[in-house]
Amino acid sequence: MKNLREYIKELNEIGEIQEIDREVDWNLEIGGIIKHSYDLGAPAPLFNRIKGIEPGFRVLGAPAGMSRQKGLAFARVALSLGMSPRANGPEIVDALSRTWDRKFIPPKIVGEGPCKENIHTDDDVDLYRFPTPFIHQDDGGRYLNTWGIVIVRTPDKKWTNWSINRVMVTGKNMLTGTGFKGQHLGVIFNQWKENNTPMPFAIAMGVDPAIPFVGGMPIPDGVSEPDFIGGYLGEPVQVIDCETVGLQVPASSEIVIEGTISPNKEIEEGPMGEYTGYISKGGYSPQPVYEVSAITHRNAPILPVVAAGEPVEENHTCWGIGISAQVTAELRKHNFPVAGCFIPFESAVHWLVVTVNRSSRGGVSGEELVQQLAEIFFPSKAGVLLSKVLLVDDDIDPSNINEVVWAFAGRSHPEHGQFLFPDLTPFPLQLFVTPDEKTSGKSTKVIYNCLYPDHLEREQVPQRLSLGNLCGESVKEKILADWHKYGYAKPLTIEK
Fold first, then answer.
1. Are 103 and 212 part of one and the same domain?
2. Model-level pTM?
3. What integer pLDDT is reported at residue 491 of this predicted model?
């Protein structure tokens, strides 16, 4: 799908949109409805009337949340990435990881696009026109950008970065946000700051559905996300010139904010509810100031909103899928016998599950595989973000939390199944990271060996008692076909 509206139309056709025509308040009510929709696996709420906001301005909540519909759990993620709504987690991760096997395609600059239907500059700039929600009651402010892309470019114009970063409104033409320490946004900002020069930026919200998933990937320094996205899609992303800065944005964007980030001005930002499922008391810090010079938007613009918090929400689906895809590609590049990777959404991006292809593993022991994995994964960008890795055989579906917990509980030895790796870089947002570890920048990470024990010969590996193994494939198929005939309700699914 080439734009957010096509995506919403497709979601509506499979029962994954709930239009809300009743007036709702941007102050906590929108955030609360989005959160409850996550908890229920309910359709994505599309708010059509927002208190105090001019008619026509809308909000889409939970744009890539999970679904309770049988067979459609990953539908919003899959459709975003151009796949069947019935695709499962490992299939989606594999498709995205294979982008590294393709030729990247730079974006195509076009002369006109829907994001230019309304143009506001100078004194006409007013960020308060938009239905920016106050999401969590302890947030430090109203967050305009939770699912859009912050676009910046190095001074030499060789590297363009599209990334998801939270951005808070602090005035009618001023914003602030995070992402300046250790992330690519910060790496590029520091190049501008060295010359005491304001950094041009653009924030594109309501972009082509695939874009946020790449914006959340830990791809290497110097790789431009728009080129990567073109490689994944097999065609260039259509972009259009900004009004006041020398950047390009997706032409179909719903809302575009543009301007410069001051190299020396800062203002307090935060706290904000985090992907970890917590909000830090007093968690504010000085962050750079975004000075807005122009706003463009579509008629009746739609603002996508993510309500970060306990799983499962978009920080988990987007980040989880993107990190898993990147790690899978990295392990393949190093000839590790990886079948696939997945970050269980229920872990709030704290666990990485790596599955081993048993047919290509050869005679390598479990301990040797653990050491190989550590040498490849922990030095990577993704390795900084995660501290707990589970290594399992490929008979386990890494996206099925029940199977993952079962393998961890039954296959990992209490003493010999845990491998600790000290003096590695921690990710400070994780609750278990101590103050001393944050100060020193050193912490311990772990890989749990959840493979079948090495002492079992291949013929000694016990058979799983799944449905098919328990009663045989023919009886299994009969049971599945006749399930509702036993008196059970038919599954709530929509064929397509």
1. yes
2. 0.93
3. 62
Pair 283, 270: CB distance under 8 Å? yes
User: Cβ distance 177 to 125 under 8 Å?
Assistant: no
- The whole domain housing 448 covers 334-454
Q: Name the band, by pLDDT with cuts 50, 70 and 90, for residue 495.
A: very low
Among left, alpha and beta (phi > 0; psi -120 to 50; other), residue 343 is beta
Q: What are phi and psi of 246, to 5 degrees?
A: -85, 55
Check whether residue 250 and residue 353 sit in a common domain. no
| Tens of pLDDT, residues 285-332 | 999 999 999 999 999 999 999 999 999 999 999 999 999 999 999 999
Rounded-to-integer distance, Cα 99 and Cα 231, Å: 6
Helix (H, G, I), strand (E, B) or coil at 167: strand
Q: Is 324 a member of any domain?
A: no
Q: What is the pLDDT of residue 123?
A: 93
User: Helices (H), strands (E): how many in the chain?
Assistant: 14, 21
Query: What's the angle, vertex CA 436, arms to CA 434 and CA 437, rounded to 5?
Result: 65
Active-site positions? 274
Contact indicator for 177, 290 with CB cutoff of 8 Å = yes
